[in-house]
Amino acid sequence: MEGTTWAALTAALTVAGAIWTWIAFRRRGAANGLRALGFTLLPAAAWLTGTLEVVVEIAGSVTDWATSLVFDVRTWAGVALAGLAVLLLVVSGILRDRQLGRAQSGTRPAPRDRSLPQSSASSGGSPVVDDDLGDIEALLRKRGIE
Question: Cα(38)–Cα(47) distance, rounded to whole angstroms?
Fold first, then answer.
């Protein structure tokens, strides 16, 4: 393709992205609009740096490979292995998330018995407590935590 063709492709992609950006700003807010604007600027950046041609060439090569691929037994075995690999990766991620969830729920300490020791409870009067601990104890009682 010639330089004008690349410029036209870039302009078309940028205009389509600008429309998408405007819709994203109006319907979904600033965060999604800014994300859309970032994607909108990528074709222009790729054209200015010369990487747009590389991306199109790679996409063309992959398309040529996929359309000329002959599915014989060996190829189907490779596709099956790739599918199995993806399945195993997904299942291992799910299992890992479950294990992390159990580990996080298991690290919480069991509620402690907050009753006073026998020696201070049997003295009859108020127990002798450090001033700081007394303040903390009062805050806990105030919030209903005993």
Answer: 15
Assessment of whether the complete model's pTM goes beyond 0.70: no
**Burial class of 36 by CB neighbour count within 10 A (0 to 12, 13 to 18, 19+):** buried
* Cβ atoms 51, 5 nearer than 8 A: no
> What is the dihedral angle through the alpha carbons of 25, 26, 32, 35, rounded to the nearest 10 degrees?
-30
List C-alpha distances in Å: 20 to 17, 26, 28, 45, 46. 5, 10, 11, 18, 19
Each residue's pLDDT tens digit, 30-41: 888 999 999 999
| Separation of alpha carbons 146 and 136, rounded Å | 11
Write the DSSP symbol of residue 125.
S
- Pairwise CA distance, residues 28 & 33, whole Å: 7
